[in-house]
Task: structure prediction
Amino acid sequence: TATANAVAIKLRNQSMASELATAARIQQAILPDKLMEIEGYEWLARLDMCRAVGGDLYHVLPRPEGRVMVALGDVAGKGTPASMAMSACMVLLSTLADIGGQLDQIMGMMHSKLYENLTMEQFITLFLGDLDPESGRLSFVNAGHELPLIIRPDGSMEELEPCSPPVGMLPEFPCRIGVTTLGPGDLLAIFSDGIPEATLDGEEFLGIEPVKSILTEMREQPLLEISNAIGDAVAEFLKGGHASDDVTLLLLRRK
Result:
């Protein structure tokens, strides 16, 4: 009986591991494997999951009239429940990107659908931008997400403040649209809280200042080097320990 029970547990664990691996492959397939090319701009994105599946997401999608949708979000929680909510959000983004209208309308529709279907403890912090590549005009809604940073060629910095509560958190969704402009040489960094809130013990955190320093000092360097420097800063702070949250970073520079 003991042997049979041990075999049953091992088989069940193998089945769960196989299902988790399948879920991870599906989630990776949902994320864009290559960002769309935009004349006059360069992009780079990275997503390092702390588990086989996670709740962070990013997307870059074409919109009507030559505009581009930029999204980066973070589902509350971890593991399989977060990955399911992340997948639903990615599908909604892909669908709504083709629809005309302002960002507040799009976010309102997303909130309505997700609020109906997420569990009570789930919500999504989300930055959603609408870029006009020709003018550099960036309309955005920051739904309770980490503040994206724009680093100007002279080293000055702009933070894109929240415009609404997280998606799916409250019955009502008050929302306003922020507007800024990306000029030549400007660098936009959007990231999840897995970077500034990297921690080993839940008491000491990396913080945002090291991230700001890297972005400012390396603002003219290749995007891959900037991304690697931020990833290295997280790894060094964790001293070889395992990250407790997903790490996601999206860099955009106007040439």
Q: What stands out?
A: The longest helix spans residues 2-30. The chain has five helices and ten strands. The two ends are 69 Å apart (CA to CA). The longest strand covers residues 124-132.
